[in-house]
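User: Is it possible to get a 3D structure for a protein together with its bound compound? The compound here is adenosine-5'-triphosphate. I've pasted both below.
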Amino acid sequence: MSEGGKQQRTQQKRQQPQANLDNGQHQASQDGTANGASKRPGPQATSTPPRKKARLSGPAPAPAVSSIQEQRRLLPIAKGREALVAEIRANEVTVLLGETGSGKTTQVPQYLLEAGLAGAAGLIGITQPRRVAALSLAARVALEQGAPVGGTVGYAVRFDERCGAGTRIKYMTDGMLGRELLGDPLLSRYKVVVVDEAHERTLRTDLLLANLKRILRVRNGESGDNRNPLKVVIMSATLDAEKFSRFFSNAKIVYVKGRQHPVKIFHAVQGQTDYVDAALRTFFQIHVDQPPGDVLVFLPGQEDIESLDAAIMLFARQLPAGAPEVLVVPMFAALAGEKMGRIFGATPRGARKCILATNIAETSITIPGVRYVIDTGKAKEKRFLAGAVGGGFDTLLTRDIARANAMQRAGRAGREGPGFCYRLYTEDAFRAMAPAAEPEILRTGLAGSMLQLLCLGQDLQELELMDAPDVEAVSSALRTLFLLGALDSTRALTEMGRAMAAFPLEPPLARALLASKELGCTAEVLDIVSVLAASAPLFIDAGEQRGASVEARRKFVHPAGDHLTLLNAVHAYAAVGGGGADAKETEEKEEGVGRSARKEWARAHFVNERVLREARSIRAQLVGVCAREGLDARASVGDDADPMLLALAHGLAQNAALLMPDGTYKQVMGQAIVKIHPSSTMADKKVPAIIYNELVYTNQIYARGVSSIPKSFFASLGAFNRRAA
Ligand SMILES: Nc1ncnc2c1ncn2[C@@H]1O[C@H](COP(=O)(O)OP(=O)(O)OP(=O)(O)O)[C@@H](O)[C@H]1O
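Assistant: Yes, that's possible. Here is the predicted structure of the complex:
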């Protein structure tokens, strides 16, 4: 059945509260992550929605621990503190394996600082694959240190940094530390680098590991220079420790024993065909039958989160009067700060919070109050098809998770007291899962990373990596960089390439921005790329209200397509009182009437306001880079569309397609036949030539983020001349 058909069917089903809910039984089992001995059965599904009075009484969660310092002392890792510090002191590289929640991420950096391993003024950097983890961990550890964030403990994530002169412990994304290599190739300010959640094997972690190996060689003395040695600690709860140890010349492996609180695991008795429905049933079984505690549900993506959110609210309204309130809180990468506050903030008395999250909540973080985890066993995975028709494109498909992910998910329960994890898949399915996710370097586009490496004088193919990337993915990245003008025909980095790398943007967007210099439209292109670099689409996919959303947005629609439509929306938002070019002015209007008017405006136009606000902060940072790179951020062409489209086309030259006589579009630099995505303002238009932000493959190849360009542009795009060369 098609995705759309399935969606429709589930929606129909969820709109009938009396639907049969009788296939959600779970059985308790033990696996590597569970050492609880609870006799409490898993939630038993009923044949009707919950009717009986829900209760939020029962055994209290773990006894409150009086002080934060006492909590620290009770963590399993605390018992081995001295021995652990001694091992790290004695070894250049330590691989540290310990159960989820044992205290690795929050405690190890503090132990090392307190033991003097960072010297008098050196830094301890702790990398995380995800920004939300870096932000929340910095907040927690700052609290434990009794100092504000930006004091002893700070953080650095893309487009946001809070560190001061006195910062000694820095939580950061793996990508940020990678960027620091550009200015400081030996990471000389760091005495210790802790690579946390290394099992995730993100591309950035892998590149960082390769660089750390290089840096160790230089700083730790093969060349005799041992004045500023570096220590590296690799950590995870679910790691192939031997592999990491081998990579670092048989590094010492240290195990932290024990976990603070048990997590009891329940598996579904039979496989679930509709995981959103199964999650809905399981949530209400918990809500009705189980003692207090918040619930964390893992789902693949935003669409499922929104669908489950609506379904839970529908059922919650049917609970008897006086039943505990249900508070649904979505959690995905694109959330703005104030929403994060709702996730991590205290649940009101008598209510039960239900956090609906993607895998951004899977590792490292502690969400206070969460006692129950529901795991659908699914995640969205981005995969770059390098050898595909069309020269490669990203796919974003829902897939089964790996065992390591399942164990990490279970580990989000049981952090403040005993926890429970309900897997919506069978124990056999769990055992059949791959042990760990495939390293990202084997499945992702490499152009951006390759450009950064070239700026460091490194060649991806010569780097000593844990797993070497696919040859086709490497040549696809090289081709992209060459067509964008970042490389010359000898594969050497050009001035343009260096300038592109200065921007924390994917190469095509950086190229478009640089092209705006000559064309005098930097102000407009900044507006556009800032939105495209944000972590979610600007326009909300309104689902059933699609008709209404199209109508509401009609006034922004630009005949040239999605990019200028997006620009119109940014300008319209600015006119309501925020989001425009002048960040300072908008900050002043942040409070009060302006703020609520903007929110209302965004809601009425089905525009994602947090994206606009995120884009505004991205823009402010890009303006800083523009100044350094000699671009005038105020240069504007007003309403003149052509210069803006031409600048964009410089970045998206590889993403161009021409109209064929049969009404389809065919790539200019590839063989693929593409369709314009139905969400595009260009969906029903037939224009001679288009550029697009990306191709996505669902059941066919769709171009998303589409603009019409004059065919005459092709003559002036360097990429086409280069292709011919
Ligand atoms: N924000 C927080 N609020 C309350 N308790 C917290 C918070 N962060 C951490 N803790 C407590 O500290 C414990 C250890 O957390 P930490 O992140 O250091 O563990 P970890 O071993 O790194 O786990 P993981 O492998 O899951 O990342 C948690 O189980 C929890 O009890």
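DSSP finds 27 helices and 22 strands in the chain. The longest strand covers residues 689-697.
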